[in-house]
């Protein structure tokens, strides 16, 4: 086994270099500048310690954005992942047409977000949109509304823009399920478990790790979600659908205040670490006792 | 009871397929509508099927050139990403060394870093490396963007390959590198393909870095072509949706074919984790 | 042991060849303003005026003419950056690193002040003053828009003259004879239209509510002297003024009663389409829209004949030069010289005439007359420019002078104003608070 040791750094080198270049060094710059008054409108950077963080913790917009981000993460880790996993479990038994369904379900993830956003603007359009037209057609005219701009419906409406497209989850879980050892499954069948029971009690626990992975993916997807919100509701009405990346973008682009924007960036990173730790603990993704 | 459950299952499938295909059908239909039709009634059928939108798309933007760039950039970054990350993932899954968990944790942090915040410093890095406005610059960035996801997926895959396979190889006298390439990589095909698919799609649709890190036509990618169709006070949605169609149809086809191969390799029995 | 090295070598080779193969194709790209071997000074000029942008053909032609005129000396290489917002993003990132392209178009984004704050702009005062022809193109307003502290930094090509358009047929249907002279009359007309079953106004709230803020600013500017002063202030920070609150109240009423249901959350495209499809009677917008009235892809045949133009009630019209081209400091003085030549060429009388005749762009210089050719091609534009002569109150539009972080805030808060969750005072307070974030 001595041979092995010598190869470890060689195998790691490309990845580590890549990480340093695109993540570590830039992130270091972001963290350092969050301690400065750093604006595009003034070439001089002045050290201000934790002032940006103090401003952030006194900013009511920040709490709203934080709350929205956390709720979206929770929805994505539960509803979205459950939907994708359910579909994968059903397809795993290879019912007729499963290949088509599997491929079809991935299609929305291939279309650029700019187009998806446009489509949902049309679906929710208060004047000619699909939803209001349907409601009118079945005589529920009183229920029609401006879905993306009504304070009460904006948040769930925006959520709909991505929550149903669980193609990634399905693809990953299905690939993993199909590579499971058939012997284990056969053994379970012999024990007299029905098809449905096999799914729930035998297959699902074996997929825990990959489901954990998709949850981490779902959480980080929501931590970085920007374009779909920006195109559909623009973060409004008020700040009802503003999340942390949108807040960051507004500060970065609108106020040209890079130091403060980077402060929000640091918070997103910290929130991400927290999410990952929790999911890893819950799903034991990191444990090696497979 | 059983047919009832089956019916339920197919209703569920029907809903999923409807939800999944609605956007693409809508996009394709819109590429045949006039601008007024797109803006006046979202779900109507186009009044006539002509290819004016496609002609406009090709004349307004250099879409074919961008398409070629996209294929090259997304393809190369995906191949390199999967290759290098498989090596790293394998080491993390199978080797013991000091600081392993710490290094792995730090690398996986990449996943939660908001790219909006890194735009500026990444631009500096690429500029310093002399890679501004080159395909290489984008390839490196896209390799990095897909780093955490690939690492996560492939490490999981390697972990689920039985230790016995590897030990048998060592007993037979195979080297570390040979074991990796000949035994482990084939066993991890599922994970490799999943990572490759995700990495490819991620690079294919990336917009912001493509915009910031390129200036000429030599390294511009497809998503950038979409901005050609909506200026502040003028727009050509028909051409835009034609461009979206041009961008998306080949990638769906490639994806469908590609996925077929994954499954056959998985079910052919070469991999039985 | 040997095998190990061979496999490693192969791996390495594969990686390197891949990298090299891909890197090469991009290597040729020169950095901004490199002098090439045959001594032609190259100006790399990124522009958003490409694709469907109305000015695209004008810029393309100017580049061609410039390269012809300065053949062997200077050469502009056009770099297309489609999408205004993308262009601004790109310039801002380059501002941060200090390597701006030699020529930047300030446009409606006030890039000049940001570049000046970073000390990256070339002072054009001497060159312009030494050139009477060039100097003559600067109107007083253009001089103000392009100068800071008495120094000229930029040169305008286009003016922004904005009134509103109305549908003559719909006006006739509601029994309205001509556009309103006062705001009271304007709202009476809205009521008349509504009574006749016609939606009076096209409005929007997304993308910083362009159409809506035109009505809004017009009311502020004509409210009283303080209102006009507000409109003339760069980056105003106090929205808690009586005339502002009164105007916002009217905007609230307009959103609630006089416009389409999709105005709230709607984009400019939706508002434009509502007007172009003959569903609403009025839309506030600039002359660049005139081309759309006869574009059968966007509207029906013959629609152009139904459209009339007007200046706002109380004799108001938006009239301000759009911040022009400026030259940035370069390490190579030759590139700066070339860039100055380009700015002069791109804002010359010829360039302004070209813009007018080919795309109906309003010239920045008042000395550039509306030619016969332009009148024939754009009769509505000529008619509108005649009307503007009668205007007694003029200012820039609100969006051009607003702190840039307020643009998104306006889009986010207008829906709440519409729903009544915010009243006019609360709305103005939100804007004031947001403005305060700029220190």
List keywords for this structure.
heterotrimer, B: 273 residues, mainly alpha, MetI-like fold, disordered C terminus, C: 439 residues, alpha/beta, D-Maltodextrin-Binding Protein, domain 2, 2 domains, six-stranded mixed β-sheet, three-stranded antiparallel β-sheet, 20 helices, 50% helix, globular, disordered N terminus
Task: Note down, in words, how this protein is organized.
The complex is a heterotrimer of chains A (290), B (273) and C (439). Chain A has 290 residues and is mainly alpha-helical. Chain A has a domain at 72-241: MetI-like (MetI-like fold, Orthogonal Bundle), CATH 1.10.3720.10. Chain A has helices at residues 2-33, 51-57, 60-92, 98-106, 113-124, 130-137, 154-163, 167-178, 182-190, 195-206, 208-224, 227-232, 244-254, 258-283, and strands spanning 36-39, 42-47. In chain A, β1 (36-39) and β2 (42-47) form a beta hairpin. Chain A is flat, with a radius of gyration of 23 Å. The two termini of chain A are 22 Å apart. By secondary structure, chain B is an all-alpha fold. Chain B has a domain at 61-229: Orthogonal Bundle (MetI-like fold). Chain B has 14 helices and no strands. Chain B has helices at 2-30, 35-40, 52-60, 63-94, 100-108, 115-128, 135-145, 147-160, 163-171, 176-187, 189-205, 208-213, 222-225, 237-267. In chain B, α4 crosses α8 and α4 runs antiparallel to α11. Chain B is globular and about 70 Å long. Chain C is of the alpha/beta class. Chain C has 2 domains: 41-155 and 325-363, Periplasmic binding protein-like II (D-Maltodextrin-Binding Protein, domain 2); 161-319 and 396-436, D-Maltodextrin-Binding Protein, domain 2, CATH 3.40.190. Chain C is 50% helix and 13% strand. Chain C is built from 20 helices and 13 strands. In chain C, strands 7, 8, 9, 10, 11 and 13 form a 6-stranded mixed sheet that branches. A 3-stranded antiparallel sheet of chain C has the order 3-12-6. In chain C, α10 (210-223) crosses α11 (225-232), α12 (242-257) crosses α20 and α19 runs antiparallel to α20. The radius of gyration of chain C is 25 Å and the shape is globular. The chains are: A mainly alpha (290), B mainly alpha (273), C alpha/beta (439). Chains A and B meet through α1, α3, α4, α5 and α8 of A and α1, α4, α5, α6 and α7 of B. Chain C: This is ABC transporter substrate-binding protein. Chain C: Residues 1-20 form the signal peptide. Chain C: It comes from Ohessyouella blattaphilus. Chain C: InterPro entries: Bact_solute-bd_prot1 (IPR050490), SBP (IPR006059). Chain C: Keywords: Cell membrane, Lipoprotein, Membrane, Palmitate, Signal.
